[in-house]
């Protein structure tokens, strides 16, 4: 049975996962350089072994209040279009292997920012994991929607 | 098949190099038409291309070069003289060859490039075409023998030039040359053909030998590899910076020494790697003689091109980026700068203009100057055009220095060309040059004296990746400013009374008497604004031909930084040119000076508008800002300060009476005096020894307005005012929390001297009449 590995993490008590193949590394970091005038979802820039990496605040991307960047945050560094972007998350979870069977499209009741970033849901034993579209999650040029938009396109991008 | 492909590839590379050489040689040849050496060199180059194209079965190429070769051999042998027509024909031939090579490169075949017209043009230049072929016979035996012996695979090709060149060589003086020359082409031929063994016949070719030895000591390196090296060195520089900083905090002598070595080695390594990417500017200059020649020819001008500092090196990527702007500036100088021969002679200049290109290293930058001794830039005309195109307003113009006006040519949509030629003046002009140069972190500048000439000056960084930058602090973050745009640093010292001033809300600073528009970095970046106009630093920056000051909290230091490009999401912000990693390992954003400058222009314009309003207000006698407050009895009267020429104290006894009026002797004149107290109908209570008076002088006529006391000079906005229609007053206003009457100065003056303005208007009339 075909299956996939997901790196999981929590944001605002919700479990998310991204395809493990996209994850470069995970680290804790606290010295971010703010980028004035940039979209609020850009938490800041930091130096990862000589590379300048932009950290994207997933809370803002999900339509929640931004994170306090003066306390260390967990960075999930994903590779999007040959560029490394850090997703700021609350807590790192395990890497889990999931059968494609367990996959379901996002529930109709899921709305707004969440719906835009999610490609589907996985039913775990005790909770749900939302599979994140890393590219959308890292894209700060799109204003965070209040209402969900084109749902067909979302299903396809999985 | 692949092998053949490789051969073609090599042929293309070599031919392109040869063609560039050819362009230079042909233009040089025109200056020195008799140079056999030059002719031989050109002949050999064409011959090489021809030989190989025959071998590779590129027949069109072969026929074109063949025609060129025929003409060249006549020139070389002195059968006919080089003249502009033959130079044009040969250059046209070179162009066709280039087109053919381009087609081969792209499609693998010659395509359907028209070669007939060029062949006709070249053939037409051959004088005495009737020379019978038969006479060529004597020249024949020696040459083909040499060629056939040496180059086996090319044998079907090499005999050709000899046979074909022969008819032109038929004339008697060429006989000796005919025997020795074909040997040279055969030798030159050799590196291209698959039989490199051909070399032996000519040991007397020193150029050839030199070329070899250079080839032996150098290798070709993939540019990508160099880019990678450069990137790695960049990282190393940053890491070095961090270590140096870290070690300075621990004070360990051994570690300090090691660090110092690391520091030196890194710098040397950086320099060496940068050198590998360096190419002399001649690479892009070498095409310019041709450009200048063709252009000046078509415009009926004579232009001498001088080049200084050809060997000046800069990074290849920068070289590439500078090429187009440079060519544009050169074309512009020939087209608009240098006058036609007739105009020059009329002005008493030499008939030929001189265009000087100069390149030199200067303080971590490469300076490239394009200088002509042409007409210079007409400031008036630039100003007028700028007005017509709406680039500036009349008021802005009035306040600009001529240098600033000239810099307007860099504004988008600006072109002063009277007529649009196919050369320049197509609307894409200097603004594109400026944008391109700024994109690589450089700057462009122009200096011109009308009638004498113009100098364009490009300041180009040595390399793109590593730049000198000033680091500053604003709010909690550090920012880097490319050093190229920084003119000076100013500390606004609150203790010595310096401060930032405001002209209707726009911050300015008095820098050596001139107002410098300011941009507050914190405000621009939307950070919390520090409410201080003192004890801040101003970085005086230069961009868009204008200076402005950037207000920051602190200036830290200058350091070498490696520019890291920003991703699209940050670029959209527009204020940042990139990011870098500074000494302590943190990321700092690099500020984009031109976009900050654009913001400053908005501010500066606001300031200018305010000033204009102020002037207008003064003219209307309306909202006067600077006022002299005088006390008359219990009343306060305000007099516009520009109606005050001097303040005087007159002894009471010196005020004399003439009829019903009072006068005072003042500087050998009789000065009419009016007491404001009596004018305004209040008691004159002044009983001192002297009385203060406001003297107003206009066009040699003066009056004195005697007041009781001078209270103050205020600068104020008059917001609340009422139009009390009292005699001698224009109204009243609240100034310094007190109701103050605004004096109708004109009326007061007339009361003192009824003819003050009437004679003035006579004067004005006569002025208009004149």
Short description:
Chain A contains four helices and eleven strands, in the order E-E-E-E-E-H-E-E-E-E-H-E-E-H-H. With about 160 residues, chain A is mainly beta.
How would you explain this protein's 3D organization?
The complex is a heterodimer of chains A (158) and B (770). Chain A contains 4 helices and 11 strands. Chain A is mainly beta and 158 residues long. In chain A, the strands form 2 sheets. Chain A has a 6-stranded mixed sheet. By secondary structure, chain B is of the alpha+beta class. Helix content of chain B is 43%, strand content 25%. Chain B contains 26 helices and 30 strands. Chain B has a 6-stranded mixed sheet. The N and C termini of chain B lie far apart (89 Å). The C terminus of chain B is likely disordered. The interface between A and B is medium-sized, with 21 and 27 residues.
Helix content of chain A: 10-25%
Counting DSSP E segments of at least 2 residues, the number of strands of chain A comes to: 11
Pattern of helices and strands of chain A: EEEEEHEEEEHEEHH
User: How helix-rich are the residues of chain B, as a percent range?
Assistant: 40-55%
In one word, what is the shape of chain A? Answer: globular
Number of helices of chain B: 26
**Sheet bearing the most strands of chain A, described?**
6 strands, mixed
Instruction: List how many beta strands of chain B DSSP finds.
Output: 30
What percent of residues of chain B are in strands?
15-25%
CA gyration radius of chain A, whole angstroms: 15 Å
C-alpha termini separation of chain B: 89 Å
What is the arithmetic mean of pLDDT of chain A? 81
Biggest sheet: strand arrangement of chain A: 8-1-2-11-10-9
Q: Round the Cα radius of gyration of chain B to an integer and report it.
A: 39 Å
Give average pLDDT of chain B, whole number.
Answer: 74
Indicate the low-confidence ranges of chain B by residue numbers: 131-215, 418-427, 614-624, 761-770
- How many helix segments of chain A? 4
Largest interface, Cβ cutoff 8 Å: A-B, 21 and 27 residues
Largest sheet of chain B: 6 strands, mixed
Low-confidence stretches of chain A: 145-158
